[in-house]
Design goal:
The chain has 173 residues and is an alpha/beta fold. The chain contains 5 helices and 12 strands. The longest helix is centred in the C-terminal third of the chain and has 14 residues. It is globular and about 35 Å long.
């Protein structure tokens, strides 16, 4: 029996985008991927649309060897991770080990700031496209983009597709 794949979903303590967390999580779990939610604390987090999520672990407790994928969830609150050294370190660790490193909405900026998107085909919420291009990313503007182990999506409308594509990349790996 194949080993169960595990993904950690990183959300902001406030203003994560509800669909991006809940739909992505649902699609991953439908595909048999076990999910864990992480944030800056394990206090209940608040979505932009009123949804609530209880992180099981903190960002500091995320250990790359325990997961097959890291997924940064968007929403305006995700900007809290743009300059977060621990978020960058985790993104680099997962990526360097060939693990799925994913981000949706504005969260691909976390990956760009960590230096992971140079020469990669990516998509992102329109407000961040210029910034990603400045950091060497190849912005495609499609709903969901996969380039190797990097999976990016442009926003809430693509959350289900984002979850499905992450699961596909995990299964293929």
């Amino acid at each position: 029996m194949p080993e169960e794949k595990r993904a950690v979903l990183v959300i902001a303590p406030n203003n994560f985008r509800d669909e991006e967390l809940f739909y992505t999580k649902e699609e991953l779990e439908k595909a048999g991927v076990k999910t864990t939610i992480a944030s800056l604390s394990t206090e209940e987090a608040n979505g932009m649309l009123g949804g609530k999520a209880k992180p099981q672990i903190t960002l500091e407790e995320v250990k790359e060897e325990e997961f097959d994928a890291i997924v940064f969830i968007g929403g305006s609150g995700a900007s809290i991770y743009f300059e977060n050294k621990k978020a960058w370190e985790l993104a680099r660790e997962f990526s360097s080990k060939g693990k799925v490193t994913a981000a949706i909405c504005i969260a691909p900026s976390i990956l760009a700031n960590a230096g992971l998107l140079k020469g990669k085909k990516v998509t992102v919420f329109s407000s961040e496209a210029f910034d990603l291009k400045q950091k060497g990313a190849i912005f495609t503007g499609v709903a969901v983009e996969v380039d190797g182990n990097i999976v990016t999506a442009e926003g809430p409308g693509s959350a289900r597709e984002f979850g499905k594509r992450i699961a596909e990349v995990l299964k293929a790996g």
